[in-house]
């Protein structure tokens, strides 16, 4: 019993010191300078508000447990991105990219988008993959398509703006190398692509082949450096 109480006291002390390290003069200090989020509905904190379609979630019962009510999060309250931000020590949630209207770039940006996938075709039947390079720049801002490639495109915009704020690309890259990046993708490539009759993915690929396609595409995307 006595040894158990000692262990509990030690654990409590460790947690206290660990938490104390992230507070300075009463103000919590983030463990990293910035935090970037790429993902789908599990991480979207308001980007879908800019959609013209029914995929918006800025109405009740969404947000019923959130301080400001329905905010565009696909949840009752905080989502995964918000929880990670809290654990990292940020005093506010990371801003959504929106349609390029985010201004607080130095803290990070949330690019997560309800319905987003690894593949450009996921969730958007009218887009022809071979023509993507010709039309993406207009679609990315129309509220119609924010797949992983689109989110990476938007991150390049963010990097460019941070470079201007900090004075040079070199300083920006050093700053960004200290940040945390979270990416969650792949659910919708099955739910809103492979498993739907409107897509021919299940006819073109076996389950194993489709999984490999997603892995290889995602791997390439994660290796992309800002240009």
From TrEMBL:
Its main location: secreted. Keywords: Hydrolase, Lipid degradation, Lipid metabolism, Secreted, Signal. Gene3D superfamilies: SGNH hydrolase. The keyword Signal applies. Pfam families: Lipase_GDSL (PF00657). InterPro entries: GDSL, GDSL_esterase/lipase, SGNH_hydro_sf. One of its GO terms (molecular function) is hydrolase activity, acting on ester bonds. GO terms for cellular component: extracellular region. It is found in: Secreted. GO terms for biological process: lipid catabolic process. Residues 1-26 form the signal peptide. The keyword Hydrolase applies. Coiled coil: none annotated. Belongs to the 'GDSL' lipolytic enzyme family. This is GDSL esterase/lipase. It comes from Populus alba.
């Amino acid at each position: 019993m006595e040894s158990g109480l000692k262990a509990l006291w030690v654990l409590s002390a460790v947690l206290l010191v660990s938490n104390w390290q992230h507070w300075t003069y009463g103000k919590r200090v983030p463990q990293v300078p910035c935090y970037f989020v790429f993902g789908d509905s599990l991480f979207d904190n308001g980007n879908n508000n800019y959609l013209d379609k029914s995929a918006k979630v800025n109405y009740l019962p969404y947000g019923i447990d959130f301080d400001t009510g329905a905010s565009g999060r696909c949840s009752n309250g905080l989502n995964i991105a918000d929880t990670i931000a809290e654990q990292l020590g940020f005093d506010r949630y990371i801003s959504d990219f929106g349609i390029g209207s985010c201004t607080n770039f130095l803290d990070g940006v949330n690019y997560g988008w309800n319905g987003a996938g690894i593949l450009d075709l996921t969730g958007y039947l009218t887009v022809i993959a071979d023509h993507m390079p010709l039309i993406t720049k207009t679609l990315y801002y129309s509220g119609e398509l924010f797949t992983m490639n689109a989110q990476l495109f938007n991150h390049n915009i963010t990097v460019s703006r941070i470079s201007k704020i900090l004075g040079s690309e070199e300083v920006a890259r050093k700053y960004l190398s200290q940040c945390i990046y979270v990416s969650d993708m792949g659910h919708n490539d099955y739910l809103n692509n492979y498993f739907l009759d409107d897509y021919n993915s299940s006819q073109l690929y076996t389950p194993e082949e489709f999984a490999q396609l997603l892995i290889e595409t995602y791997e390439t995307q994660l290796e992309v450096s800002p240009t």
